[in-house]
């Protein structure tokens, strides 16, 4: 892990940088995939699946029989865990639904907003290096609460061409029936343009590797909406002397195991914690099942010592992590000062893994500094609003002078006339 000791603000850009591919090369590669799928549909999806996933597919769609029998291939323990997670995620997301409000802005002027589900949505479930069935819950539950009519799910097939049964089971629990064996940029292209098998959707959701994230950003320019750039996972731990070095190291490694391009950062005001976390990372890493992946990620991860908490918090906000764990005595007070983060975990007993799976919050979150401007997934992500208004005759009279004055100042007399014609008619 790269170490920084009391870095001045001049070196912060290097600290907040993520280990990303060259943007131009990535975009060229992804654009070529998008273009092929746009022109050749299913054939191109199958060809890229052969190239990138090493599997030759006959049918892209998963049959209803495969979905229905998936649960037979899961242990009772796993099914119970998925159901507990589902309940918690449902409760949290349902509680945060936006409620419609009717407002009278002036006498006789009433405005309101109607929240409507986005009719056709596409969910991307990562599966290149691990079958992230937890992501099915994170996307399927808010889509279901929002009331989306058509939900399409794409996920890469395993080496045997199968989709992990837990992905199918979680999809079944959330009412998803249109499931396709397609991953990477080719899956995003298929949902953006539509193919003979995979329906075109209005908005694409879900995390993924850099190819997936780039594809989402590129198709967005062609008219399909996306949730956010949710790329390689990252965690930042802010720690003081009260942190437990073993706990902190386990949190850093929990995200490092996602992929070589994940990043884990420790920002601490304690020299002791910095040294002991480094040792703990080494010893815990050596026994991980995904040691090879985590090791690569840890190589591009960072340990930062800051000599005061104010600067440490400023650096966290500049880094804008996907996940922030505050392992400090005054976690709540510090949390109040966090302005840029996807999701925040307070205290020594709030590991990020709890949020990844089951506490209730969503784990699909903005990465690569995008937490400065984007939020994680919520029910709202799956809805759109239409605003409405109704003015009474008196209401129009009350607002007329304001509108006419402003329209005239913009040089738009037809706008002013649309008000004046009504007022004048009534005064004649
Ligand atoms: N930000 C979030 O909310 C969040 C949540 C969960 C997971 N993640 C991240 O999602 C990612 C999942 O990545 P993954 O790779 O395991 O699965 P993935 O499903 O995102 O990507 C796998 C696909 O990438 C394509 N691909 C692989 N190598 C390629 C190449 N050289 N050229 C073109 N396409 C290629 C293949 O088609 C493959 O099917 C991880 O980085 C993880 O950290 C992020
Ligand atoms: N940490 C990931 C989000 O960056 C979510 C996840 C799924 N499974 C395990 N973790
Ligand atoms: Zn995770």
Automatic annotation (TrEMBL):
Substrate binds at residues 233, 255, 258, 323, 356, 410, 415. Gene3D superfamilies: 1.20.5.1300, Nitrogenase molybdenum iron protein domain. It comes from the Bacteria. One of its GO terms (biological process) is L-histidine biosynthetic process. It catalyses: L-histidinol + 2 NAD(+) + H2O = L-histidine + 2 NADH + 3 H(+). Catalyzes the sequential NAD-dependent oxidations of L-histidinol to L-histidinaldehyde and then to L-histidine. This is Histidinol dehydrogenase. It comes from Haoranjiania flava.
């Amino acid at each position: 892990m790269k170490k920084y000791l009391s870095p001045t603000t001049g070196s912060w850009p290097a600290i907040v940088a993520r280990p990303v591919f060259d943007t131009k090369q990535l975009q060229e590669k992804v654009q070529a995939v998008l273009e092929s799928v746009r022109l050749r549909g299913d054939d191109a999806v199958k060809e890229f699946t052969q190239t990138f996933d090493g599997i030759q597919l006959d049918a892209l769609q998963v049959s209803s029989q495969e979905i229905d029998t998936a649960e037979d291939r899961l242990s009772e323990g796993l099914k119970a865990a998925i159901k507990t997670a589902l309940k918690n995620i449902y409760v949290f997301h349902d509680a945060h639904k936006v409620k419609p409000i009717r407002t009278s802005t002036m006498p006789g002027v009433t405005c309101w907003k109607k929240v409507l589900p986005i009719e056709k949505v596409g969910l991307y479930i990562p599966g290149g290096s691990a079958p992230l069935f937890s992501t099915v819950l994170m996307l399927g539950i808010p889509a279901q609460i929002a009331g989306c009519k058509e939900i399409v799910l794409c996920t890469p097939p395993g080496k045997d061409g199968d989709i992990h049964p837990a992905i199918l089971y979680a999809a079944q629990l959330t009412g998803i029936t249109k499931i396709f064996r397609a991953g990477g940029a080719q899956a995003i292209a298929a949902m953006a343009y539509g193919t003979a098998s995979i329906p075109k959707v209005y908005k694409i959701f879900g995390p993924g590797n850099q190819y997936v994230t780039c594809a989402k950003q590129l198709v967005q320019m062609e008219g399909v909406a996306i949730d956010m750039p949710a790329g390689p996972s990252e965690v930042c731990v802010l720690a003081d002397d009260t942190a437990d070095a073993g706990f902190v190291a386990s949190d850093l490694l929990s995200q490092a195991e996602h992929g070589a391009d994940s990043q884990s950062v420790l920002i601490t005001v304690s020299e002791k914690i910095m040294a002991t976390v480094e040792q703990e990372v080494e010893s815990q890493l050596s026994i991980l099942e995904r040691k090879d992946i985590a090791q690569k990620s840890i190589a591009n991860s960072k340990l930062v010592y800051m000599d005061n908490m104010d600067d440490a918090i400023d650096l966290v906000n500049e880094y804008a992590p996907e996940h922030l764990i505050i392992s400090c005595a005054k976690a709540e007070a510090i949390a109040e000062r966090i302005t840029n983060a996807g999701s925040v975990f307070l205290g020594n007993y709030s590991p990020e893994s709890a949020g990844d799976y089951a506490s209730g919050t969503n784990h699909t979150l903005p990465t690569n500094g995008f937490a400065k401007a984007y939020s994680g997934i919520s029910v709202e992500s799956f809805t759109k609003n239409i605003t409405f208004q109704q003015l009474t005759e008196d209401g129009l009279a009350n607002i007329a002078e304001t509108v006419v004055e402003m329209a005239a100042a913009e040089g738009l007399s037809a706008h002013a006339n649309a008000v004046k014609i009504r007022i004048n008619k009534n005064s004649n």
